[in-house]
Amino acid sequence: MTGPADPIDAVCAAMRAESRVAVAIHESPDADAVGAAAGMLDLFARLGVEAALHVDPGVDVPYAAEFLPAGRVVVGPPPPGATLYALDCGSLDRLALTLGRRDGRVVDIDHHHDNTRFGDVTWVDGEASSTSEMVCRLSARLGLEVGPRAATALYAGISFDTGHFQHESTSAETFGWAARLVSLGAEPTRVYRLLYERRSLAGLRLWARAIEHTRPAGGGRALLAMLTAADFAAAGATDDDSEGIVDALRGVPGVEVAALARPREDGRVRVSLRSEGFDVSAVAGLKGGGGHRQAAGFTATGSVEEVIQWLSTVLDERLSTVSSS
Ligand code: AMP
Ligand code: MN
Ligand code: MN
């Protein structure tokens, strides 16, 4: 492909040339995916480009009412010929959108280091805290400023992926963008409440069950938790309530790897991995998943017990060959 050498400039050039586009994000979307989408929709509106977020039927888009412009979430395929802007998504098959025969180009904007670089234009920055932070850089490069609603969404995206400005991916630049977004109208208190203060009694009961069902692996350097469908039913909880459990386990002193396995609606098992130093995206990759070195995930077949057993064996092996950091 010919064009600007710097991928961010290639993305800017592509955006300026559009008349109608579709935005897509990863399955089980999180605040970074939705925040980045909100930012891109705002930028496209300012460029006079018609744009909407497209998802498959049944995809739950969190914070849509708070962050996304009304009427800009479309359940269904992109319009013919529209460029697809894929955000925060490591590979095409992880999109929350089934693509039939494609006639438009694809622009891939993401911060997963293991992104498969599937775009006609690809801008991947594995060091960026979040895709939302990358969208902030894009807005500056385009010479545009987002409105207060998109600013709040982008701030939420950065906050979510940095564990509220705590993970190592949080840089001076990250704080700089957060400050800039607040000056544009982002509401930090509202974001904190939305992302971190909502915890139901059902959710707390679910946490208790997960922690109860936690076992060590790798000589105590890993903690593996699991939740069964019966746990969700007994607690009256949903998958959203499991958010944060794996991070809490990672915080136990001496623990380098934490995992949480729980059932998905389709009968498969979803696993979240967190680490300190150790590359968990490589472990997720063994089962077709991926992510970041310190936060990754995969989906597997089998029961939660079987998946935990598999993980336990892999971590026993891998943690005995990696020296303690
Ligand atoms: P989660 O545990 O869902 O918070 O995911 C942690 C990180 O791993 C995120 O950056 C996800 O994008 C990534 N991830 C989770 N599940 C998968 C998967 N099945 N395939 C690729 N990446 C994943
Ligand atoms: Mn994400
Ligand atoms: Mn992200």
Calculate Rg over CA atoms: 20 Å
- How much of the polypeptide forms β-strand, as a percent range? 15-25%
Distance between the ends: 42 Å
Order of SSEs: HEHEHEEEEHHHHHEEHHEEHEEH
**Share of residues in helices:** 25-40%
Report strand order across the widest sheet: 3-2-1-4-5-6
What characterizes the major β-sheet? 6 strands, parallel
- The tally of beta strands, per DSSP, is 12
| Net shape | globular
Describe the structure in your own words.
The protein is of the alpha/beta class and 325 residues long. It is built from twelve helices and twelve strands. It has helices spanning 7-16, 31-46, 64-67, 131-142, 148-161, 172-183, 188-197, 201-212, 229-235, 245-250, 280-285, 304-321; strands spanning 20-25, 50-55, 73-75, 83-87, 106-110, 121-124, 214-217, 222-226, 257-263, 269-275, 290-291, 295-300. The strands form two sheets. Strands 3-2-1-4-5-6 form a six-stranded parallel beta sheet, with helices on one face. The chain has a six-stranded mixed beta sheet with strand order 7-8-9-10-12-11. It is globular, with a radius of gyration of 20 Å. One manganese (II) ion is lined by residues 26, 30, 32-33, 88.
Task: Draw up the topology in text.
Blueprint: H1 7-16, E1 20-25, H2 31-46, E2 50-55, H3 64-67, E3 73-75, E4 83-87, E5 106-110, E6 121-124, H4 131-142, H5 148-161, H6 172-183, H7 188-197, H8 201-212, E7 214-217, E8 222-226, H9 229-235, H10 245-250, E9 257-263, E10 269-275, H11 280-285, E11 290-291, E12 295-300, H12 304-321
Parallel strand pairs: 1-2, 1-4, 2-3, 4-5, 5-6, 8-9
Antiparallel strand pairs: 7-8, 9-10, 10-12, 11-12
Helix pairs in contact: 1-4, 2-4, 2-5, 4-5, 5-6, 5-7, 8-9
